Amino acid sequence: MKSARPKILLDALAARAPMTGVGWSMVELVGALSGQGGDRDWFLATADPDLFPQVSNRPDWTVVEVRPRGPAFISRVIDSQITLPNLAKSLGVDLLHSLTIPPPWRAPCPVVATVHDIAYHHYPHTVPYLRRQWYRLALPRGIAAAARVVTNSETTAHEVREHFQVNADKVVTTPFGTPTWVLNRPDSGPSPHNSPFLFVGALEPRKNLLNLLKAVRILHAELEAGDQPVSGPILRVVGAAGWQNKEILASLRTMSEEGLVCLEKHCDRDELWKILISARGLLIPSLHEGFGFPILEAMAAGRPVLTSDRGAMKEISGNAALRVNPEDPQDIARGMSRLWHDQELVTSLVKSGYDQYRHWSWERTAVATIQVYDDVIAESRRS
Asked: Which of 31, 60, 199, 204 has a 20 to 30 A CA-CA distance from 228?
């Protein structure tokens, strides 16, 4: 017989170095949930307990360390379908929340599944072959078995309902928030006009770096061909090593040698803040995003943002970003030129960006997520 005090297991096993947006979203959600109180017992499955210091000494939280079983992808396959269901059974939990895809096909309790995006469907060439095939096999079954599917944006919710043909009520948006590490930082003031543009993200095809690099060349050519030739802005690139990126890396090396690009390694957050506030603006014209943390981080840093005119990037940025067609390097270059020349536009975007990033709150995420838990557990106990 289940205890009246709900027991909830959170699957954060995919939060592993080097951390990307998916991993950091797990850290943010756990922190926000831990601040909500309530009469619940929490269990956190993680490969790295040091990522979650906010719950390490909480009496209502139990951290269960699960060692990785090889490379991240292989480990995810094993953990999602074997390790987590077994752990849920041994702990006797009322609910398992899988914080990334794919969720378990079978579990001894109801499952809530977070879907960050379905880029593997929209842009299959941007996802490694084995991972793409695994998603195609496992995700439909996992979503069909889940009691609820939660998404980080309305865009992702719409995509999930449409692609998987699930009941609309089964998919709930629990919108993510602005990363807390950028909050309450001192005002950085405006950056000098000749500051570099900035790209932040993994070096992989979905981030659309090749088209961005083409746009940099176009802008430089236009500036050098003008009546009064001037040097164009440098693009500073900060990101973890990605995948399927040989052509991207080759272009970055060539343009770095030409003085058009400055390539940085993945860095810690204090260093990233220094880089953010030293930038003219953030360029993130991705082909597809489920949310888009860098957009809000740049807005919190008081920097204008250029992003794609579609999907979650349009939703998250609202009217506070300059939007372009990510598949048209000429359009990206035109947007860059506007950010480079039009100080009035930059000032307007920075002002609206401050209001926009404050709209996205992890407290709201936690409240909405707990409501999903309560609904699912209540339904399970009635059945």
From this structure: 199
